[in-house]
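cache lookup: miss for this entity combination. No prior model stored, computing from scratch. Input as submitted by user K.M.:
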Amino acid sequence: QVQLRESGPGLVKPSETLSLTCTVSGGSISSYYWSWIRQPPGKGLEWIGYIYYSGSTNYNPSLKDRVTISVDTSRSQFSLKLSSVTAADTAVYYCARRGSKTGPHSYWGQGTLVTVSS
Amino acid sequence: EIVLTQSPGTLSLSPGERATLSCGASQSVTSSYLAWYQQKPGQAPRLLIYGASTRAAGIPDRFSGSGSGTDFTLNISRLEPEDFAVYYCQYYGTSPYTFGQGTKVEIK
């Protein structure tokens, strides 16, 4: 059974860079699309972007200038960097897997709360 | 960008009743790329339906999806206690992959 686990700092200061890693276990990172999705407390879901195992990416235009997603297939990990964060970036961040470029998000991590505060 | 609007915001029902949740798209979309997720407090979303009407693995048959064009529906035929949760629709055909704002199904 595929499992995803997010890790990273739970507190980030305003204007700094949020960095999270998703570790994939129970399956290969190859041949799949890997997304980051976030959810502000008490609010809905926002897709941030995805990376294919080969390294190609697609970002939400609303965040594109601040987002970088990368992959390390040797470690079965992919990562999110979000720069110049503000309080509006406080959210639970989820990593998720898509079976194909046109597939739904079938597997999700449990999520990690990142708070932006000084 | 496709905007998805879910209605109602909250649905108050009793166990055993039927739930009908709606998801409207701002423009006609390919039904092949419409999904429904269930989210319980403190948990990640769980995929219920994809391709508008195909149940994901392990999803009970009381959940069914339908629709095309701009109007999509998730039906829960007989609510079980574990079905009280928030439900989101998502379009994943073209980037950005947007979600509806969610419908909360609560116990009446």
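stored under new cache key. The mean pLDDT of chain B is 96.
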